Amino acid sequence: MCNERMEEPIRTLPCLHSGCLQCLETYSLRSLQDGLHGNLPLLSLFFSLSDLLFLFLFLCSLDLNVDSGSREVKCPKCHCPFQVPEKGVEDLPTNYFTAGVVTASIKRESVDPNNIVCESCEKTQATDYCKDCAMNFCSDCKKVHLKPKMSAHHQFITIDEAMKGGFASSAPSILHCQKHPHQEVNSYCKTDQTAVCPQCVVDFHSGHNVDRLINISKGFKDGISTLVNKVCFQILSSFSGIKKLIHVK
User: Which of 82, 108, 136, 214 has the most Cβ atoms closer than 10 angstroms to its Cβ?
Assistant: First the structure.
């Protein structure tokens, strides 16, 4: 949208395109400004973008001179329409993968290659980088890190490889919650259709239908595999039909 590097927090639209929260708020507000009866320039003097968007959505919920159907906005990339949530763009799902890639990219740019210290002991110079944890380790701390079963299969690359782009090419496999940074995102709330950490389950999703993320991902993979097979079958059927038409002519 702004052609700049994404900044956290990052939200995902129903069409699976993503954008920075601030850019999405700006874009959505501009798309919805007709519902504010052309008063956007005046209102912007008194309200922030997020407050303006919340004000508009609040008026929609009260049905006061604002068409609730005008909550529909088109994706700036593919123009697929979507409804802005009642609480605003902030209520859209977080794109943890892209957020991880952005974090890793920023981290690489801010690191002094001549002064990389182990993030575990914070004393010795780092020699290796854990792609799963997105952390730098010295040789001794690396051995300790690989002992527990939980981190025994973590993937390491050398610091030199990391500085050349190794840790910016993919997001860490361990995703940390934006609301609770020290908690790992390992569950999925089916009620709200969002990935959550254990603390989020307690604080915001109590009583909801929550399952382990690994179970949900398996279901998604199976569903995608079924869809791919159906599409392949339809493509082959289409080619067969085209060949028949050619022979008829």
Answer: 136
